[in-house]
Amino acid sequence: MYRIGIIGGSGLYQIEGLKILKRISLTTPFGCPSDKFVLGLFEDREVVFLPRHGLGHKILPGEINYRANIFGMKKLKVERIISVSACGSLKKEIKPLDFILPDQFVDRTNSARKMTFFGEGLVAHVSMAWPVCLDLAKRIHNIVKNMGINIHLGGTYLNMEGPAFSTRAESELYRRWNMDIIGMTNIAEARLAREAEICYVTLASVTDYDCWYEASEPVTNEMVRKNFAKNIENAKRIIQAVVRLLPQEKRCECAWSLKYAIMTDKRYIPGKTKKNLKIIIGKYLK
Question: Which positions are catalytic?
Fold first, then answer.
């Protein structure tokens, strides 16, 4: 039985109904994760939970150690990750308090964040044409629709740097690019999950219309927190239903993302790199 990983965004620091088995402090070759991992049991399913910004929300989007977070999930034998995030909407039909499962990303962080496990003598290039697990996204969409909660399947998440919100000019530019939602965190998680061969999906909670919509107030942290708080109970209900209803059958092709990605001859990969990444590349070194 595989474990399901939940990465909690702004305001989601615990899951009701989760029987906590233990809190785990992990060390990784990439430093410390955002916080302790919570290993728990929801009904008969094992879940690993991590608050992205740490308890108390003390880590900026650009300061998050994404590599340590995803590596820790891999180390704890997580095979599917559901990443819960707040986002702004760039389209009128995607309304505050809706949910959306984006299937594309555009990175506007200027590569300021460390988003790969590779380097240090190992070259690998994973495919990111479809950066989320479409099989998992479709399953979650069907579950949530049957719950009567407004949710959109598909769309492009523009990952900005932050921590400040967009200028009006930026917001209008992203709309001209036909972006759907905007956030500050998920592109790094998606890339690293693909490298770690973990199925990954973003469950984004729409909190505002960014600052482009004339009929809306300019986005503020108070607005984001208020609307995310309104949606937090729905987010928890969704997680509970998804954990309960996801099937146990074999996983999709995400489990073999590195099959043709590693370019370096294994004879030339440094020993330290092999050791550090054993849980990720080990099966390809035999």
Answer: 208, 210
Domains of the chain as residue ranges with CATH: 3-113+126-252 (3.40.50.1580)
Give the CB-side neighbour count of residue 63, counting CA atoms within 13 A.
Answer: 9
Query: What would the pLDDT profile of 266-280 be if each residue is shown by its tens digit?
Result: 999 999 999 999 999
Contact 205, 99 (CB under 8 A): yes
**Angle at the Cα of 63 from the Cα atoms of 62 and 67, rounded to 5 degrees:** 95
Strand ranges (DSSP E) for the chain?
3-8, 19-24, 37-42, 45-51, 78-89, 99-101, 104-107, 151-153, 156-159, 181-183, 199-208
Contact 194, 173 (CB under 8 A): no
Tens digit of each residue's pLDDT (9 = 90 or more) over 159-177 = 999 899 999 999 999 999 9
Stated pTM of the model: 0.94
Q: What are phi and psi of 284, to 5 degrees?
A: -95, 0
